[in-house]
Amino acid sequence: AGVPSMFRYLHVNIDVPLRGAAVQSSTYLGWIAGQAIDGSCSPDGKDRCSYTGQMDNPWWRLQLDGVYRVSVIEITNMYSTRKWLDGVEIHIGNSLVNNGNDNPRCAIIHDVPDGLTQTVHCWGMEGVYVNFYKPFNTTYLMLCEVKVYGGRNPFYQSNIAVPLRGAAVQSSTASGWTAGRAIDGSCSSGTDSCTHTSEMDNPWWRLQLDGVYRVSVIEITNRNVARDRLDGVEIHIGNSLVNNGNDNPRCAIIHDVPDSLTQTVHCWGMEGMYVNFYKPFNTTALTLCEVKVYGGRNPFYQSKSSLVWGWVYECDIWLG
């Protein structure tokens, strides 16, 4: 029997130009950004690796030739000074605000003791820019090879059924403003329809879905008073409960929207069972009046082939 039309292979190429596509915050002694996409995985020297000068918050950015859904990134570290990879963040998106370093975060990486090359899954995150960002003072960033895999296939959205009981929890509860109120189906911004943590350090709210989904869009309704409590809140999506789920990949940082209580955030197919709202500030409270999550279970499978001289060839995407 033939394969149904909804199940088929798509053959796509990610074109990574060798000239002008990779840039970095500074360059040390000729170790240019483009050396990290030269097709060589050699970890041993000046003619193979990129290297910034010593500075605060160094970064390296790859501009793809269009908007792609990135599934996997392979990174080769240098054989010496391996610790310089520790704490580097990978961000993917379409914005150049803060040089692209404010785009959604896929992962935080570290040196892998038993291998110079590691693989990071970004689960179909969408963007034209792939950033490596090291948020530390007086440091370097070095990359010997970066290989990016993914495709252009569309991601269709459907509603995620969000269980109304037992799915939402928060770091603390003030005066009966329970976590479940943010998924009660009411977009009212009054006191009987919103969540509210106690005033504390680093408050959070977490939604547990009934399985692992690819989250495309989240709608958030803020309270009609004390609206600035939403400023700086981070949205994280993933499958880990380390640090109560707040260490999962970050989709966005949100703020109050002056002309509307409800805003929409795109998470571009990020995968996870847990959706966290996390406020990384001291002595503060977190309030949410409604959270609606949309996405689907569509698998995003990829078949990797070699990236040679800046091209990914025959990156097959299986749509289920």
Question: What does this 3D model show about the protein?
Answer:
Homotrimer. Keywords: Calcium, Disulfide bond, Lectin, Metal-binding. About 0% of the residues lie in helices and about 45% in strands. It has no helices and 19 strands. The chain has strands spanning about 10-15, 20-25, 50, 60-75, 90-95, 105-110, 115-135, 140-145, 145-150, 160, 170, 205-220, 235-240, 250-255, 260-280, 290-295, 300-305, 305-310, 310-320. The strands form 4 sheets. Strands 10, 11, 12, 13, 14, 15 and 16 form a 7-stranded antiparallel β-sheet that branches. The radius of gyration is 21 Å and the shape is elongated.
Protein topology:
Elements (H helix, E strand, L loop, with lengths): L8 E7 L6 E3 L25 E2 L7 E18 L11 E6 L11 E5 L7 E17 L8 E2 L1 E7 L6 E2 L8 E3 L33 E18 L11 E6 L11 E5 L7 E17 L11 E7 L3 E4 L3 E2 L2 E9 L1
Antiparallel strand pairs: 1-19, 2-4, 3-8, 4-7, 4-9, 5-6, 5-7, 10-16, 11-12, 12-15, 12-16, 13-14, 13-15, 17-19, 18-19
Roughly what percent helix?
Answer: under 10%
State the helix count: 0
User: How many beta-strand segments?
Assistant: 19
The assigned structural class equals mainly beta
> Secondary-structure element order, as H and E?
EEEEEEEEEEEEEEEEEEE
Into which percentage range does the β-strand content fall? 35-45%
User: Which word captures the global form?
Assistant: elongated
Could you list the spans in which at least 5 consecutive residues all have pLDDT below 50?
1-20, 153-159, 161-166, 298-320
| Gyration radius over CA | 21 Å
The overall pLDDT, averaged over residues, is 79
End-to-end C-alpha gap: 17 Å
